[in-house]
What we know:
about 50 residues
Amino acid sequence: MIDFAKGWLGTHPHARPVVLVLYYLAIIAVLAAMYGRGNFETPEFVYAEF
């Protein structure tokens, strides 16, 4: 599958920037979905006493 993707991107040089932009937009969308409701609290286990 990876070889196919590399071969396809090699034959379509303008697709690489488009794929990267879509990748980064997907990351931003996931972060917005996770934290978009204003829930910026850290999990309790971060402050666990040792």
